[in-house]
Amino acid sequence: MNRPERMVSRVSVTPQHETIAEAVDVIAYLKLKGMKRYIEEIIAVDSYDAQKEKYIIRRNSNKDLRLLS
After folding, report:
1. How many of the other CB atoms lie within 10 Å of CB of 17?
2. 59 phi and psi, to 5 degrees?
3. 3: which of 12, 18, 25, 34 lies 20 to 30 Å off by Cα?
4. Distance (Å, rounded) from C-alpha 17 to C-alpha 1?
5. What is the pTM of this model?
6. For position 69, what pLDDT does the model report?
7. Per DSSP, which regions of 8-66 are E strands?
């Protein structure tokens, strides 16, 4: 979740963790293998826990690496 936080910090001085958690549903990590891209991992963003200062996420590793195109 570092990249979305960095992007938001360009336009806002105050952290926007809750806003990011509301706006982002899923993050897909892609892996380049040769000239093809594959989904390496999918993360579902559920919410942000302000007391623990962390995002509540669910990881879904894809060991078979699905071809995107």
Report:
1. 19
2. -95, 140
3. 34
4. 9
5. 0.70
6. 40
7. 26-33, 36-49, 54-61
List all residues 6 or more positions away from 57 whose beta carbon is below 8 Å from its beta carbon: 1, 43, 44, 45, 46
- Kind and range of the H or E element at 6? helix 2-9
d(CA 43, CA 61): 8
The pLDDT tens digits of the residues spanning 23-57 come to 999 998 899 989 999 888 888 999 999 999 999 99
Alpha-carbon distance of 25 to 64, in angstroms, equals 22
Residue 4, number of CB atoms within 10 A of its CB: 18
Residue 58 pLDDT greater than 80, yes or no: yes
